[in-house]
Design goal:
mainly alpha; about 475 residues; 17 helices; Growth Hormone, Chain: A
């Protein structure tokens, strides 16, 4: 951090209030991303559409999210982070209302695309609002709240969606966003400061946005269809190849543009690069868990969606229990030690899920998932905080755009890794449907991805992130 930079100073109470407001809005987005999965069969019956075709309601949102995230930093710089965040909540909420009123699949897909636009601005810009409002010494405490939506939302989404569809209507799945959105807009207007920094000026990198948007859309489409039999394999491979090609063209374009929409030059900052590389491996594992766990509990162990949801909720409870512990642990041991040791423990708890058996008492499963949720949440907080530890404030918007784009890709890639491992293991063992041994292989594979992040964490300097944690080794 440059010595000349001045940092905002706000009270601890104000910082926590801001973090909770922003985290609540992000929780709405993360919950919505998963809650509709269990509502798809009911939606298919309502629209008289084949259930398999309903997956477009998921992919259209994810692709829209991926296309617009790269532009979020430039938009926040030009129109103000608070203003953009507030408008993003409005767009997301109104699009949710449209989704709930959809008369057919085409209308629903169009509304989901608009919803993705709002979501694309909420995630990075919400994080940017908080980063610009707190000092570096407050970042650990603030970011520990922002890890909650990514960890709790995917866990609560499926059982909540099942409850709503069972006892009410699938349209209520979208309507639950309305009160949260209204409260969020009011809270942002009253309590979030309109902080502005001298960021990236000039015109939007239109060609860069087109290239990154196409690359993200193609790769997300490829990831979403990989191993699921939704489209021919050649289509999936073609989408991934087209996305990779667009990335290559963008890298050439980036070298000639003074202010590219995604600035990969930020990877020259060691703490940011380590968080991107190691954090991506870790997020692949975390992205697979909300996919593997409910499937194993429901299809493998024969539990109901509600029983499965009550068991997986233990992970969310562990994540919540982590918040007061993050700052003391990082202050005592430092980022490098925590990321190495905690990363190793978090990977082991993921692989322990491979040993789950249908006859195990629910309390045993809950205990393992609770502890695993604690360590994963601590790892998330550490990665998401140190990523911005050495970023100059003028480049915060560029950093949040790049980090959020990579984050979205790797979380989706986690589902692909989990699904592909299940499919390959079932074929190898000649299982008509996935068995316990196949789910075990899935947990081991994604756990190994998490474990591969540890050596990259070891490359951090022992003093990395001292200004954030207060640790002096």
């Amino acid at each position: 951090m440059a010595e000349s930079e001045t940092e905002p100073v706000i009270s601890v109470g104000r910082m926590r209030l801001m973090a909770v407001i922003i985290a609540t809005a992000l929780f709405m987005q993360n919950l919505d991303s998963t809650v509709i999965a269990t509502a798809l069969p009911a939606m298919a019956r309502s629209f008289h559409a084949p259930p398999l075709h309903m997956s477009v309601a998921l992919t259209s949102y994810l692709i829209s999210l991926s296309v617009f995230i790269p532009a979020s930093g430039w938009v926040a710089d030009h129109f103000g982070a608070r203003q953009v965040f507030r408008i993003a909540i409005v767009i997301f909420t109104l699009a949710s209302v449209a989704c709930g009123m959809a008369p057919g699949l085409g209308f629903l897909v169009a509304a989901r695309v608009v919803q993705g636009l709002g979501g694309a601005m909420m995630l990075p810009v919400g994080r940017l609002v908080l980063l610009r409002s707190v000092s570096r010494a407050q970042m650990v405490a603030a970011m520990s709240w922002l890890t909650m939506p990514a960890l709790v939302g995917p866990i609560l989404g499926p059982p909540l969606g099942g409850f709503i569809v069972t006892y009410f209507s699938w349209r209520w799945v979208f309507d639950i966003n309305v009160p949260i959105g209204i409260i969020g807009v009011i809270a942002v207007s009253l309590f979030i400061p309109d902080s502005r920094e001298a960021g990236r000026g000039g015109r939007l990198d239109v060609w860069g946005l087109i290239l990154t948007g196409f690359a993200m859309a193609a790769m997300m489409a490829g990831f979403e269809t990989a191993g699921r039999g939704l489209v021919p394999l050649s289509w999936t491979l073609g989408a991934l190849a087209a996305g990779a090609g667009a990335v290559g063209v963008y890298l050439l374009h980036m070298r000639r543009h003074p202010q590219p929409v995604l600035d990969f030059a930020l990877l020259r900052i060691p703490t940011f690069a380590s968080s991107v590389v190691a954090g991506s491996l870790f997020r692949i594992a975390v992205g697979a868990l909300p996919f593997l766990l409910p499937l194993m509990l429901q299809l493998g162990f024969g539990k109901s969606p509600m029983q499965s949801g009550l068991i997986t909720f233990a992970s969310a409870a562990g994540a919540l229990a982590m918040k007061p512990a993050a700052q003391p642990l990082l202050r005592r041991f430092g980022f490098r030690t925590v990321l190495m040791l905690n990363g190793f423990i978090a990977a082991l708890f993921i692989m322990v899920c491979a040993s789950f058996q249908p006859g195990w008492p629910p309390l045993v499963l809950d205990g393992i998932l609770l502890l695993g949720g604690f360590f994963r949440s601590l790892q998330f907080t550490a990665f998401n905080t140190i990523a911005y530890g050495d970023i100059p404030r003028a480049q915060m918007s560029a950093a949040t755009s790049l980090y959020s784009t990579i984050q979205q890709l790797t979380l989706t890639l986690g589902i692909v890794v989990g699904a592909t491992t299940l499919e390959l293991s079932a074929q190898w063992h000649h299982h008509a449907v996935a068995m316990q041994s196949d789910y075990a292989m899935g947990f081991i594979v994604v756990g190994l991805f998490s474990l591969m992040a540890v050596p990259f964490c070891a490359r951090l300097h022992p003093s990395a992130g001292e200004a954030l944690s207060g640790h002096h080794g």
